[in-house]
Every structure is written in C-alpha cells, then in structure tokens.
Amino acid sequence: MKIKLTNQEIREHLGSASPEFPKYTTQLINLANQNVQGTRPRVVGQLSELIQAFPGKRLAEWEKWYLKQHPEAINIATNKIVEMLEHLKKAMNKIDRNLVEQWVKDLVIVKTFIGLRFQEAILKKVAENQKVKYRLASPEEESQGIDGFIGNKPASIKPATYRSKRGLSEDIKVSIIYYSKKKDGILVEFEEF
User: Fold this and answer.
1) What was the pLDDT predicted at 167?
2) How many C-alpha atoms does 147 have within 13 Å on its Cβ side?
3) 56 found inside a domain
4) What tens digit of pLDDT does each residue of 50-67 get?
5) Of 39, 61, 93, which residue is a domain's last?
6) Residue 117 domain flag
C-alpha cells in the first residue's frame, strides 16, 4: 500500500502555516539566491547538522534555538538576496523582444553548432594523436552513449566533471574522452586507443 503526504500536510502536521507567495516570485527569489548563495552553510550554517543537534521537537522551539545559534543569518541572507533582486530588476528593464531573440538564436544556432562540432574537433585531435581515422557516431550509436569512433573503437566525450558523477544511472561501456574548457581552448584527457 502506498500513501502520499503532501508538503502542505507535512506543514500542517508540524504546525507551520504555509505563506502565500505571489505567482513567479519564489522562482525569482530562488534565482537571486542561487546567484549570491545567500543560504549556503557559510551564511546560514550547516542546516543538516544543526537540525540533528537541535534538542527540541516543535517548530517554534527550532526557530528560537536556531536564531540563538545564528542570530544574524536570516538578516545576512535576506540582504544578499534583496541586493541581487535589485540587480535582476535592472537587468529585466534591459530585456526586450530583440534581446530575447538574440539569446534564442545564440542558444539554438551558435551554441548548438559549437557544442556539437567541438565534439568532432576533439575526436579529430585524438585520432591525429593516435595516427588513426575518426568518425562521428550515427544516431543509433549515439543512443548507446557513443559520440564517435577513434579508429574502430567507440568513444564517449564527457566533461571532466563527469568523473565525480560516476554514480549516475548511465552506464557507458566505451572509452571515455574527458575534456575541460579553459580560457584558451579545451584540455582533452584520454587513454590510448
């Protein structure tokens, strides 16, 4: 048997009224917060550890206890976010249809082309290094996680940060070529083919 407990029900069970936020405002506040990192542990404390150390049971007790531990955190985080929202308001005034069209064109035309073609440039460079030919993967091969071939060996091209995400459900059974974008180009790492 499965039951669902909504966020609203959780709030009600814990004695916390849910504030009403005007439409789109929380998205903008979240965006501003992401930019300034106002609720990061260095500002508000490591909340997962603090909640474990909290000796009470009720929300009101938590609020009192937390504010005693970090009396300025809410104010500092709020100031950071409000300042970024002011920057976003100024930026919003600069956005018109023409700017949005330029952004869409840059994303769809330029970044797509460069993003897909730089994979080919990586394949070509690795193939030259290994003194073999290369080719891009077919759509069917791409569906198997293959981006191209170095000689006759399949390869997948991933950002270097992918290494730290190896726990992902994706299971790639081919050689991986890692790349890191640098100011002056791309650093490519691979094992011999």
Assistant:
1) 52
2) 20
3) yes
4) 999 999 988 889 999 999
5) 93
6) yes
